[in-house]
Every structure is written in C-alpha cells, then in structure tokens.
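QUALITY CONTROL LOG
STEP: pairwise intake check
CHECKER ROLE: data steward
CRITERIA: each record must contain a sequence immediately followed by its structure tokens, with no blank fields

ENTRY 1 OF 2
RESULT FIELD BELOW
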Amino acid sequence: MSLFNIFNISGSALHAQSVRLNTTASNLANADSVSSSVNAVYRARQPVFETLLDDSSGGSGDDAVAGVGVAGIVESHTPLEREYRPNHPLADRDGYVWVPNVNPVEEMANMIEASKSYQTNVEVADASKQMLMRTLALGE
C-alpha cells in the first residue's frame, strides 16, 4: 500500500465523520421542535456508512484500497411521542403536540464519538505526511 493511498482512506473517513457530525447537529437543533401532526414532526436521522473497496489494481487483492463512504441518511424508527401542552399554539383540540424522537444524550455521545474519530483520522494523515517527508529527506 502506498502512502498516498493512506491519504485517500483518511480523507474518506474525514468526509464520513463530517457528515455524521452535521447530521447529529441537525438532530440536536430540532430536538425541541414540536408539530401539530405526526406527518410534519421532525424525525431523528442517522448516516449509514459503507466500505469502499477499489480492486482496480488487478492483483491478488492485497493492493485493494478501502475507504468509507456514506450510503445515505435514514430516519430513526423510534416511535414518536405526544405531549400534553394545551396552551401551545400547535396543540390539537385535545391539547397534544407531537415531539421529535431525538434523544439528546445519545446525540451528544454520538457527537463525541464522531469528533474523536475525526481527530484520529487527522492524526493518521499528519503521521503519513511526516513519514513521507522523512522518506524524501533520505535522498538529500
């Protein structure tokens, strides 16, 4: 595996974790929103990752370069809840509003995990750059 492939792998992981952080931020931003109908309420979203494998080298598979891709973003299947808020302007005639299925504690843990993964991949790219620079310095 070439050092340049490490940059591609690390870069794909950085992109995936960036999508994960943005999705988590969106969930947290909408955690306190309410709606008058079940169809209009915000639903928590999570990115789905996939392994990217490029075996274009035609070799035995040892040279295949893997990476991380974002297959899509899916909505959570956690049941939605109704809250009794009779004074809320969006309350139905029974006094209920629909609230999102966002769990702020889980989202914060997800954000911490994604930011640590992002930081680790930045360190991998930096270490690879330092090794490449040292390799180039051998020729001097």
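ENTRY 2 OF 2
RESULT FIELD BELOW
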Amino acid sequence: MTTKPKFTEKKYLITLLCVTALFMLWGIAITMGDVLNKHFQNVLGVSKSESGLVQFSIFGAYAVMGIPAGLFMKRFGYKNGVLLGLSLYAFGAFLFVPAANAESFGYFRIALFILACGLATLETVAHPFVAALGNQRTSDQRINFAQSFNGLGTIIGPVIGSYFILRGSGIDGTLDSVKTLYIVIGCVIAAFALIFSTLKIPALSTNFEDENEAQIDKPIAPKKKLFQHRHFKWAIAAQFFNAAAQGGTWAFFINYGHEIMGFSDELAGYYFALSMVFMTIGRFAGTFLMKYLAPNKLLSIFAFANIVMCVIIGGAWGWPSFVALLMLNFFFSIMFPTIFSLGLKNLGPHTQQGSSFIVMGVVGAAFFPYFMGSIADHYGISQAYYLPIICYLIIFLFGSIFYKVKG
C-alpha cells in the first residue's frame, strides 16, 4: 500500500511560512506599479505612453535577472538567493528617495528596475524552494498555496498605494507621499531580510525525491540537458503566453468598464480590485481542487474556461460580458504556479536553472498589451479580448498533452 504524501513535513513548516510571505511581498510591489503609473502622470506630467515605461522597467528586469538569479541560486543555495532578492528589493525602494528629490522620471525607472530585479530573484528562488519543502507529489499544492498569498498581495498593493500615494497627490501634488511610503517599504523588507538570515533551513533534496516514492519521483533520464526536456520547453512557452494574457487583460480592464459598461474610471478601478479578489479566491479553490484533480487537468479546464470567457467578453453583451471579464482572473489564478510546478518536474540538478528560465516567461506581459491596444484602437476594446484566446490555447495544450515528462 502507498501512503498519501503530506502537504509538507513538520521540520519544514517555519521555512514554508517564511517563504510563503515572500509571495505576498512581491505581489504588493508588482501591483503598486499601476498606482505609480497614474501618479507620475499627475505629478511629473508624463504622457500615458511614457508612464507605460513603468511596466516595461518592471518586466524588463525579469528578463534581465532571471538567468543570473538562477545561477546565483545554484551556486549559493536557496537561502542566499532569497537574501539577494530582498536586498535588491530594499535597495530599489530606498532609491525612491533621491529620485523623488530630483523629481526625475528616469531616476524612478532606475529605482523600479533595481527593485524589480529583487522581485525577479525572489520569484526565481521561491518557487523551487517551496517545491523542495516536501514530497514532489504535493509540490503543486504547496506552490498554489503560496501563490494564494501572492494574490493577497496584489489586493493589498493597490489599496496601500491608492491611499498613501494617490490620496497624497490629490492633497499637495508632490512626490513626498511616494518617498515616505517607499522608505517604510525599504525598512520592512530590510527587517524581513535580517529575520530570514537567522533562519535555519533543514536539508533539502534538489530533485525532490522521496524514498517512499522512489519509482514515481525518481528523475527520468538524469543525464539529459535542460532543454532536452520537452515538458520544460513547453512550460516556458505556456508561462510566456500566460503572462501575456494577464498583462493585456489588466492593462485594458478599466477601458472595457468605461467604454462598454459606461462606468467612470474610478468605478471601473474598483471593479478591477474586485477581480483581484476573484483571483485570490481562485487560488485557494485551486489548491483545494488539486486534492481531487491532477494539476495538469485542472490547468486545462481553467484554460478552456478562459477561452469561453474571452468569447463572451468579445461579444460586448453588457453585464454577462463584464462578469466574464471578472471571471478571467478567477481562472487565471492557478495558471502561473501550476505551469511553474509542472515545468520543474523531474529536472533533477537542472531545477534551479530551469526555474530562472520559466520566470523569464513573465516578459510576455511587457509586449502583449501593445498588440491588444492596436486592435482596440482599430476595432474596439471588446474585439481586443479575442486575442488572448491564442494564449489560452497554448496553455490548454500544455496542460492536456505537453506537460508529460518524457524519458
């Protein structure tokens, strides 16, 4: 008889909680970029296209830092990788002070780039770290559990940013609120780094093997090179298109609410925050459902569901279409962590390096919104939401066919 593997082991519990906290911390920073976008338009007088460089700075850092972070993690280990990420995160936050003093959009972009290099490092390290904190069979559950708190961070970020930054700009029209907030953020991240440095990490198995599941978890063809693993290459593609669809959906959510539903920008923004709540609910629901459904099957179901949602959204049928737009985030919920986990399966000593390449797939979010925007300019915002169907089709194929580990 085989024993059902545990979610994690007692010796890993504290480490798992600390690493899970990282997911929330970078979720806060990522979504605060949208708040900064609007604030820079108000205070620095930059155009909408120029303010879009905020996102390019953030996601560009993921493309630049993914491989170096993976190499650093492989050489110095998970713990030191986390400490590097937190250090860059804090340093970038503190650089907001001279940027605010100089009232320079260029300086802010540099600060954001360095901060995002820290975020990219944390993402590269944290996913395989969480996967290694227990049996490989439950790695999908652990990563989705940790990503649930990332979803919480994506809700907290806009709330904090809107209150302390946009509210501040409405009062005095200066960058003082930005400077103060990021000093606090830098101090919090630095304090967390200090706490994490004192943490004793139990011995981990690089390839997540479990002695009781030797036949199941044993790495297949351990001498294969990283890019000889077909499922890994498909995971990179799936992650690229997943990030692309997410970036495009979020970029034009408020436009859809305003142009199709007739909402004010403010009301559409509140609905956007609600959609983030849907995503968080979806991540917790996904973690639960994976007890009964294989992760790849759930991924395929959610990808197919979003294909249907996009068809309804593109139809511009009033509230049914807008509810479908809200539901996109619910079905988004498990995609990033599940693609990540499936892509890392049985990579053995290539796990850390593989993590860095999958993280780099986030760069899709830097480019796809441009193509959706072009369709929206020529054919209307609702028509633009047909384009992500291509993305979900790739994800569906990965979850239904190409996730399989080949010998």
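INTAKE CHECK: passed for both entries
DESCRIPTIVE NOTE, ENTRY 2: The chain has 18 helices and no strands.
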